[in-house]
Structure formats: C-alpha cells, structure tokens
Amino acid sequence: ECGPDLTCVPPDSNDFDGEGVAGGFCTISCENEPDVCSSFEGSTCLSLSSSTDTAYCFPDCSIGGGESQCGGRTDVACASFTSGD
User: Fold this and answer.
1) pLDDT at residue number 85
2) Distance in angstroms (rounded) separating the CA atoms of residues 70 and 45
3) How far is CA 71 from CA 67, 74, 76, 82, in A?
4) CA torsion angle for 58, 59, 63, 69 (degrees, to 10)?
5) What pLDDT, in 10s, does the model give residues 23-64?
6) Cα(23)–Cα(33) distance, integer angstroms
7) How many CB atoms lie within 10 A of CB 27?
8) Which H/E stretch holds residue 9?
9) Which of 27, 28, 38, 59 has the largest CB neighbor count within 10 A?
10) What angle is formed at CA 13 by the lines to CA 35 and CA 70, rounded to 5 degrees?
11) What pLDDT was estimated at residue 58?
C-alpha cells in the first residue's frame, strides 16, 4: 500500500523505541543515507530508538497544525525534537 521505494513500518514494529506506529506508516529508511529525505519535500531523517541506529524520513509538521498536515490521519501527531532527544 505504500508505493514504490517506500517501506511500511507496521503497528507491531519495534522500530520506535520498542513501539510501532498506529495504523502503520509509509516512509523510507535513512540511517545510512540521511540526505535521502531531501527527495521528499519537507521531510527530516529521525531516529526514534535509543537502542538501534534505525532512522526514517518523517514529514515536518507544526505543533497544533491539525490533521491536514498528516494526510488527514487522526491517529498520528506532531512532536517537538531537538538534537540529542
């Protein structure tokens, strides 16, 4: 369902510090090539695991920006990150 060159991170994944993503998430791996996210306008390479180097491209968003920035999904939300979080 994700389309060519994308990876589905399913709800039962452990890639996000032992958790998955509600409803799954279509993305691309970027741990070996952080610049790959530049091919997706407004995306950032983030690692959300403290125990692995796994990293994925995430769309940039604004806290309180509403579901329109998440493709209409109500099961995901924005979070603020700074280097080292």
Assistant:
1) 46
2) 17
3) 7, 9, 10, 24
4) -140
5) 888 889 998 888 899 888 888 898 877 777 788 898 887 777
6) 26
7) 23
8) strand 7-9
9) 27
10) 60
11) 85
Q: Tokens 């700074």 identify what position? A: 82
Residue 85 corresponds to which tokens in the numbers above?
């979080």
Residues 42 and 15: their CA atoms lie apart, in Å, by: 22
Does residue 28 contact residue 57 with C-beta atoms inside 8 Å? yes
What is the spatial distance between Cα 54 and Cα 48, in angstroms, rounded to a whole number? 8
Site of tokens 């979080």: 85
Measured distance CA(70)–CA(77) in Å, rounded: 8
Q: Which residue has the tokens 């509403």?
A: 66
Query: Which single residue is written with the structure tokens 């589905």?
Result: 8
b/e 38-56 (16+ beta carbons within 10 angstroms → b): eebeebbbbbbbeeeebbb
Structure-model confidence comparison of residues 82 and 21, the more confident one = 21
